Amino acid sequence: MVHFQHVIDSLPIVGFFVAFSIASLIAIEVGYRLGRWSQTRASDEKEGPTSMIVGSLLALLAFLLAITMGMASDRFDTRRQLVLAEANAIGTLYLRAGYLQEPASGEIRELLRAYVPLRIVTNDLADLRMKIARSGAIQMQLWSIAEDLARAAPDSDVLALFIESLNEMIDLHETRITAGLYARVPETILILLLLGSLLTLAMVGYSAGLSVRRSALTTVVLILVLGAVITLVVDLDRPRDGFLDVNQQPLIDLLEQIGRDERH
Question: Do residues 101 and 109 lie in contact, with contact meaning Cβ atoms separated by under 8 Å?
Fold first, then answer.
């Protein structure tokens, strides 16, 4: 079964905006023609509560947009904060590795230098999955070294601090995967938002058809603004391949820092 969210993710952001705009134009035009048809069959149709219903639908749509925008922005902010948290955790682990005896200290720091570039996210899904697999392999190597050190010095307070930092780094790895790949705005809400938007625009066209009055400029502006806001929601919710990317600078700075340390 193909998920609706996968269909949306397969479209580039600009493509989604164009597709939504075209669908919106069709919805308004269909609604307008239905309104004209109803008006010619029963001229008293325009005396009904159509305008009030359209106003209520627009208010409900604005409310749904606000909720969805809040959910998407919260998830985007979480992904951004996790990048900084992981950079801090790796940096702390790198520093605490200096307390350990050689050759373990040098091996751990070398593994961390190879680990940091793997944590810098790209838009290529295949590359991302490869980095996740290699990150897991390096984590197993680090944990194996920690186990050997713990057997040799089980009562070492310094080693306990190191293992605590290593455990935090591994936990943040899993948290970033969950936040980046799986913690999305629920599919049902996205479907409701898109269908609700199209039905509301159809009712706007229907109301214009009943009154036999419509403004091309107003219609275009409404579609462009609504399309831009919904596209922003989709972009915030999309962890890759969008205009709004999570800044990876904390990890890039960390990579430069530990790279300078290696040269020294």
Answer: no
User: Cβ neighbours of residue 87 under 8 Å, at least 6 residues apart?
Assistant: 250, 251, 253, 254
- Yes or no: say if 198 and 206 are a contact pair by the CB < 8 Å rule: no
Would you call 23 exposed, middle or buried from its count of C-beta atoms within 10 A (0-12, 13-18, 19+)? middle
Tell me how far apart the alpha carbons of residues 38 and 262 are, in angstroms, rounded to a whole number.
77
Q: What residues does each domain of the chain span? A: 4-263
**Amino acid at site 105:** S
Q: Which of 225, 178, 235, 182 is nearest to 12 (CA)?
A: 235
pTM recorded for the entire structure: 0.81
Torsion sign, CA atoms 205, 206, 211, 212: positive
Computed over every residue of the chain, the mean pLDDT equals 85
Q: What is the CA radius of gyration of the chain?
A: 27
Nearest to residue 200, comparing CAs of 13, 23, 16, 9? 23
- Percent of the chain whose predicted confidence (pLDDT) is above 70: 92
Residue 24: pLDDT band (50, 70, 90) is very high
Q: Which amino acid is at 250?
A: P
